[in-house]
Amino acid sequence: MLYLVHMIVDIPDSLPAEEAARIKAEEKAYSQDLQRSGKWPHIWRVVGQYANYSVFDVESNEELHNLLSALPLFPYMQISVTPLATHPSAI
Amino acid sequence: MLYLVHMIVDIPDSLPAEEAARIKAEEKAYSQDLQRSGKWPHIWRVVGQYANYSVFDVESNEELHNLLSALPLFPYMQISVTPLATHPSAI
Amino acid sequence: MLYLVHMIVDIPDSLPAEEAARIKAEEKAYSQDLQRSGKWPHIWRVVGQYANYSVFDVESNEELHNLLSALPLFPYMQISVTPLATHPSAI
Amino acid sequence: MLYLVHMIVDIPDSLPAEEAARIKAEEKAYSQDLQRSGKWPHIWRVVGQYANYSVFDVESNEELHNLLSALPLFPYMQISVTPLATHPSAI
Amino acid sequence: MLYLVHMIVDIPDSLPAEEAARIKAEEKAYSQDLQRSGKWPHIWRVVGQYANYSVFDVESNEELHNLLSALPLFPYMQISVTPLATHPSAI
Amino acid sequence: MLYLVHMIVDIPDSLPAEEAARIKAEEKAYSQDLQRSGKWPHIWRVVGQYANYSVFDVESNEELHNLLSALPLFPYMQISVTPLATHPSAI
Amino acid sequence: MLYLVHMIVDIPDSLPAEEAARIKAEEKAYSQDLQRSGKWPHIWRVVGQYANYSVFDVESNEELHNLLSALPLFPYMQISVTPLATHPSAI
Amino acid sequence: MLYLVHMIVDIPDSLPAEEAARIKAEEKAYSQDLQRSGKWPHIWRVVGQYANYSVFDVESNEELHNLLSALPLFPYMQISVTPLATHPSAI
Amino acid sequence: MLYLVHMIVDIPDSLPAEEAARIKAEEKAYSQDLQRSGKWPHIWRVVGQYANYSVFDVESNEELHNLLSALPLFPYMQISVTPLATHPSAI
Amino acid sequence: MLYLVHMIVDIPDSLPAEEAARIKAEEKAYSQDLQRSGKWPHIWRVVGQYANYSVFDVESNEELHNLLSALPLFPYMQISVTPLATHPSAI
């Protein structure tokens, strides 16, 4: 079941640089694990922004929320979720 | 080169039903040709809406505009385009 | 799996009154069938508006889109869908 | 009398972590008391967000405001309220 | 129980002038009946607009929706409702 | 001459609690003086928000601005003003 | 007493050209009468738009609404009104 | 003196196709005359939309409004104008 | 050449009170110099807000930007600029 | 391949003045290098704002993102990107 997910990252200046770096490294590892598992099949950078559009492939709304709320950068992101369905013209 | 394209369809009541049906059939054929060519790798229905999110893979802005403006439903769609780049965490 | 669905109805003046009445009767029957089936557990009128907030309980995004796009009033509605998950404070 | 309530939580970084934890624990207890009393019949997490949609069942606008403004997280939430009525198609 | 109600009127050109005049006369009579009953204590014109801000004093969300949806101009109005409560500084 | 005034209060965390309490007490006294004088005939709490809708009855734009900008909470409020006139259906 | 008034004109295609021309001529005469009277001291065209920003100098909200709602183009305009006061830096 | 001008074209269905074609031909000729004159140095298509971003180089606000309001498609366009100045980093 | 300029002032709490007072005094002197020179013919307070609408009369976009960006409060203001032209109904 | 890029700069007060000055100097040098290379053919100041509209001429979305995300002021800018194509009326 697919969802389009839009994530905008906004790390506050008050976060120490080393802590930000650590969280970003964890985020990368976490994301790559999910990509390898097939649950996060697409992640694209939005040109000119610290943001991405991603596609998630999960079993349920519940699973998607669990995956997203466990993102190391979750406290610093604004996320919006669009449920997707098969398009009748898709081949 | 990838772009996320959001298309909202709004066919006016004044368009005769047969003409609308003909245009939709042309749209479907046109879309499926582009999907087969590899230029339109993803098309998803937005749940609950007469709208889609699509990903296009083209050589240039120019090519993308030519493909989109030739859509049979183009006069009845509101389209927005987001250029995409490789995400540093993508595997 | 739950979704909050917001539906705003806007029937154009150009639709003949009898046809509008027929579609509304079909909508009511369709809605009540889904309510009885357990797939549409809540439907509330938004005070002062020709609109409703509903909760759907379905198996997938796909099923939700199929149910919504089959609404007799679908061509005359603006629909937005919010996927829901269990709240950690829910009893 | 039913109301749909949308709550977005935004706890500032300046709040010490222990105090945030204490307030969240109080919020959970407060919410569960109201749920048990029947005044807060539904609370759902919005997928991907630190936000919820809830339904309240109270006697009056006054009572609803008293309940909401006493939420331990009230100073850190953006709340919007939609009054609901019986839908004519509801079974 | 008080509610602030914002009504914007937009009568389409396609409505014949006599019918529009008849509906407006009915609206005025309906409004004045409710004002006399005490249920519609305030109605003010928004300067420069075919719109009003009103205060309603009713028993429930249900009653408010019944009153508003029975407005003769209801099909031609965009209405938004804000529930009000006693302000702690009110004398 | 009447105006609808919408006030949203947002006191920053950086304001010491005692100073906030003092300003709120001054605000209450100031508001009640104006209410007694007849210049601030209505003040209602917006349900679920630290905000109010008020009606002011003053001689001029000038007088209204002087009253509003002297509110003790003025530096912490977002205010919008809607000029009102007699509604032709008002009794 | 001054007000900034923003007027956007949108004449529907369904209005016959001669009637539109007649209304515009009436609008011009009406506007120039008010300008001569001192009640409409400024009217400026917004560059690139069929819109204007104007300043009105009237005795009351009531008078302003009467003047604006009597504009021959009133049914075809979207108007917003901003009450103005003396600026403390004005010379 | 430079201005960025954003033009969105929306030709109503009610305009006969031949008249639309005639107006578009006039628009093209008019635009190319101004481009040759140096007053309209840039015109770019917005990808996926019947819209353009243009740069105008004129003597005054007055001249710009005269040029824009004389566009054959002016009645069918939504135009917004951004005044530009020399950027301190421009070479 | 005229421009309507909207300025919203938002001085952060972190600015020491004396520095804020000094900047405001400089702003007032600067504004009054420009008013006396004829380049800033109108400045009006927006009722209920720390904001103004002003009219500037300058030779060019360039001159306007130079004047605005030299405002002592420029770093603390949100400014929007609307180019104005002669209205055909102006007397 | 052309893109219109809108950049709004917002440097937080918490950034020390010398560091801000250093970053701005780097930004200027970086921008001028790209201008000389032909990749950043236009940069214009938006009148009255700490913002610019720019045109970039690059090989791909990828290259554009690399150039923009390497801007020394990138962490302090809000950037939006509009892909451009040849306009059929362009000479």
UniProtKB/TrEMBL annotation, chains A, B, C, D, E, F, G, H, I, J:
One of its GO terms (molecular function) is muconolactone delta-isomerase activity. InterPro entries: Dimeric_a/b-barrel (IPR011008), MLI_dom (IPR026029), Muconolactone_d_Isoase (IPR003464). It comes from the Bacteria. Coiled coil: none annotated. Its EC number is 5.3.3.4. GO terms for biological process: beta-ketoadipate pathway. Keywords: Aromatic hydrocarbons catabolism, Isomerase. It catalyses: (S)-muconolactone = (4,5-dihydro-5-oxofuran-2-yl)-acetate. It holds the Pfam family MIase. Residues 1-89 form the Muconolactone isomerase domain. It is an enzyme of class 5 (isomerase). Pathway: Aromatic compound metabolism; beta-ketoadipate pathway; 5-oxo-4,5-dihydro-2-furylacetate from catechol: step 3/3. Belongs to the muconolactone Delta-isomerase family. Homodecamer. This is Muconolactone Delta-isomerase. It comes from Alcaligenes phenolicus. The gene is catC.
